[in-house]
């Protein structure tokens, strides 16, 4: 190597090392600040816009300086989502084992679509797939695709469902498309999550048919059976739910799945945060019978607390998933064991299985159960604390990790939501459920403590008193 080139390389290595050291120091500083800092950001996106240089510089900038500039500029615009007092959405935190391994994921920089190209990740993905199926009590021969999140997990599973139910009626979507096909009838509960509708829109299936739900958002088996009977044998998919976004309720899986299968329908379970009830012996009854479905979607970046982004698309029939998602190119090196890219919409993707493996390995079976049970215990404590506030009412059966509350009239409830954000102690989100304004508490962070719940309830009492 020429002397000048060696000097340039040495300088870049030193610059890289200094930048990584600075990033590590700032990351630790951020994590250490979470317990004390207000949960909401201090500035809006409009206010943040002026904190960064607007003109792209002509020349290079030292990496450590770039890291410092970004961290200093962004700090007031960051929400303390990884902390123990963020209850606004089912966000999850980042378990330390997953965070540490996720740093390695970025450093290793593996494009994990092909088995021959990335044998380390493929082996870890195979093992993690087996662990997840075993932990959740799902069919051991099923396939797990590591996607970006719950939306794409639903999309992936419903793509397999669409193609398979049409294939049973003699229609090959891969070669014939959807035009002039028999179409797919999709039945959903009246309180399904909006990402089901979004995934169906992406798939060209249009709006689903809503089936009546009870006062907790659970689909009514008799109404579903009646809707299935009215289907006249058309290609049909039924979407059930493990964890209503407001109540946390679970659909009655056993009778619904039996009725759907009798009608020749594919059954998909959207379990973005609720699927992991299966990992807890104390909560397993909530998903009784769900293992008989055909596909399941969930988020690892919710209950398992791995960093964003990581969802899990689980399909009983590996061939059906591969038929919907797989691709072949002459330039690709194919392995007879099948490719990771055959299970997901992306060809290029980061090593998402690594941090999932890390959390499962660090916690073990009992640790995952304790994690789920801890979320439920904190939700129960929130419900009991809110019920003791004058004028407050808990509106849902708190069976899992969600709490929905009213503080009197809609205007007062919305005022409590606004006062909580202004207080900054905790983040709780407003919503509308069953015709009423509500404050919603979602518990999904490994680091939430009894003290976090207590100080958050104190803030709620102050907000309600105003």
Automatic annotation (TrEMBL):
<dbReference type="InterPro" id="IPR015421">
    <property type="entry name" value="PyrdxlP-dep_Trfase_major"/>
</dbReference>
<dbReference type="Pfam" id="PF00282">
    <property type="entry name" value="Pyridoxal_deC"/>
</dbReference>
<comment type="similarity">
    <text>Belongs to the group II decarboxylase family.</text>
</comment>
<keyword id="KW-0210">Decarboxylase</keyword>
<feature type="domain" description="Rhodanese">
    <location>
        <begin position="352"/>
        <end position="387"/>
    </location>
</feature>
<dbReference type="InterPro" id="IPR015424">
    <property type="entry name" value="PyrdxlP-dep_Trfase"/>
</dbReference>
<dbReference type="InterPro" id="IPR002129">
    <property type="entry name" value="PyrdxlP-dep_de-COase"/>
</dbReference>
<dbReference type="InterPro" id="IPR001763">
    <property type="entry name" value="Rhodanese-like_dom"/>
</dbReference>
<keyword id="KW-0808">Transferase</keyword>
<keyword id="KW-0032">Aminotransferase</keyword>
<dbReference type="GO" id="GO:0008483">
    <property type="term" value="F:transaminase activity"/>
</dbReference>
<dbReference type="InterPro" id="IPR015422">
    <property type="entry name" value="PyrdxlP-dep_Trfase_small"/>
</dbReference>
<dbReference type="InterPro" id="IPR010977">
    <property type="entry name" value="Aromatic_deC"/>
</dbReference>
<keyword id="KW-0663">Pyridoxal phosphate</keyword>
<protein>
    <submittedName>
        <fullName>Aminotransferase class V-fold PLP-dependent enzyme</fullName>
    </submittedName>
</protein>
<keyword id="KW-0456">Lyase</keyword>
């Amino acid at each position: 190597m020429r002397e000048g080139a060696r000097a340039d390389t040495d300088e870049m290595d030193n610059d890289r090392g200094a930048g990584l050291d600075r990033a590590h120091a700032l990351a630790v500083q951020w994590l250490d600040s979470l317990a004390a800092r207000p949960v909401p950001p201090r500035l809006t996106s409009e206010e943040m816009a002026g904190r960064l240089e607007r003109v792209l510089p002509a020349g290079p900038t030292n990496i450590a300086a770039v890291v410092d500039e970004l961290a200093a500029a962004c700090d007031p615009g960051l929400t303390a989502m990884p902390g123990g007092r963020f209850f606004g959405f089912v966000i999850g935190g980042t378990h330390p084992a997953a965070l540490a391994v996720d740093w390695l994921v970025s450093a290793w920089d593996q494009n994990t679509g092909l088995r021959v190209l990335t044998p380390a990740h493929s082996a870890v993905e195979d093992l993690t797939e087996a662990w997840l199926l075993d932990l959740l009590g799902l069919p051991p021969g099923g396939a797990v695709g590591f996607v970006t999140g719950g939306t794409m997990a639903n999309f992936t599973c419903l793509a397999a469902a669409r193609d398979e139910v049409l294939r049973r009626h003699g229609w090959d979507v891969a070669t014939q498309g959807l035009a002039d096909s028999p179409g797919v009838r999709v039945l959903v509960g009246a309180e399904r999550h909006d990402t089901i509708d979004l995934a169906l829109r992406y798939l060209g299936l249009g709006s689903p048919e809503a089936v009546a739900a009870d006062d907790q958002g659970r689909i009514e088996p008799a109404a579903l059976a009646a809707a299935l009977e009215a289907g006249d044998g058309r290609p049909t998919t039924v979407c059930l739910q493990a964890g209503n976004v407001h109540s946390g309720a679970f659909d009655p899986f056993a009778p619904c799945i039996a009725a759907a299968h009798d009608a020749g329908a594919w059954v998909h379970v959207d379990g973005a945060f609720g699927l992991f009830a299966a990992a807890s012996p104390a909560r397993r009854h909530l998903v009784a019978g769900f293992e008989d479905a055909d596909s399941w979607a969930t988020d690892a970046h919710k209950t398992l607390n791995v960093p964003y982004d990581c969802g899990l698309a689980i399909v009983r029939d590996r061939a059906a998933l591969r038929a919907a998602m797989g691709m072949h190119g002459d330039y690709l090196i194919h392995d007879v064991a099948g490719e990771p890219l055959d299970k997901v919409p992306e060809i290029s993707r980061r090593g998402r299985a690594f941090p999932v493996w890390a959390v499962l390995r660090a916690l073990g079976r009992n640790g995952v159960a304790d994690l789920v049970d801890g979320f439920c215990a904190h939700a129960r404590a929130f419900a009991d604390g809110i019920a003791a506030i004058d004028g407050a009412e808990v509106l849902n059966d708190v069976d899992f990790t969600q709490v929905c509350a009213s503080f009197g009239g809609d205007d007062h409830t919305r005022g409590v939501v606004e006062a909580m954000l202004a207080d900054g102690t905790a983040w709780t989100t407003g919503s509308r459920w069953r015709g009423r304004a509500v404050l919603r508490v979602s518990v999904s962070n490994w680091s939430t403590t009894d003290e976090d719940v207590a100080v958050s309830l104190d803030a709620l009492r102050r907000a309600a008193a105003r």
